Amino acid sequence: MANLGKRIVFSIVSHGQRALVDKLLISLDNNLVVGDFDIILVITQNIDEPNCDFISSLYPVKVIENLRPRGFGSNHNHVFEMFSSDYIFILNPDIEFNKPFCLARFVDSMVSKNLKLCSPKIMSPDLVTEDFLRVIPTPVSLIKRRLKFNGDVEHFDWIAGMFLVVESSVFRNVGGFDEGYFMYVEDCDLSIRVNNEFSIGVLSTFSVIHDARRGSLKSWRHFFWHVKSLLLLYCKLLCRRL
Question: Is the pTM of this model over 0.85?
Fold first, then answer.
């Protein structure tokens, strides 16, 4: 399939994570197979990082410096509005490409499977598949995740946001991320809304490494944001059923 003239925007948000972003950019330089795509790497500095120049040896890098911190969804929505694209690749800084990643094959697979939101397989640094395919979060499912009793998910409701690829026309159609959330659950909400009208899935022949940073386990503030976002999700799901 021809991908001539198509633009892909990579949206990466740094929370003072210079070392992680540098590692991600190096892995992109070493492993991304671009072909005919037009690539822009957009890095949002969500908190002040003085004297921080993000550099790719192969692709243009645009840096957004926030005057105040934004939430996960707000940051990526902002990038989407500022830079036109055919597809937006939403990446956490702790992602690493460890082998060749062909954009043409990835996008063609999305098109052939009619997926409007998808992810490659997400692997831990020791090459174990992570639990990035998830069911609607409940107290029981969250406890199972923390205790690592979740197992493989055959039927999933959403895809975790460490690496999401969304067709831009669909992202706009569903209204992007809901900024009523803050830092958590935006990925769940977006997956559900896209899946209600289109389709989501995983392209398991592609994989990347994720060196997880679980903020809600280390900070009461992050834990509060997580719980607040979950309550908003439950309210939205309940209203949808009424």
Answer: yes
Residues 6+ away with beta carbon under 8 Å from 6 = 36, 37, 38, 86, 87, 107
CATH code: domain 7-213 is 3.90.550.10
Domain ranges in the chain are 7-213
Please state whether 51 falls in left (phi above 0), alpha (psi between -120 and 50) or beta.
left
> Residue 97: CB partners within 8 Å, gap ≥ 6?
24, 27, 28, 30, 31, 32, 208, 209
pLDDT single digits (tens) 142-156: 555 555 555 555 679
- Strand partners for 146: none
Contacts within 8 Å (CB) and 24+ apart, 123-127: 123/207, 123/208, 123/209, 123/210, 124/209, 124/210, 124/211, 124/212, 125/209, 125/211, 127/209
What sign for the dihedral angle of Cα 94, 99, 102, 107?
Answer: negative
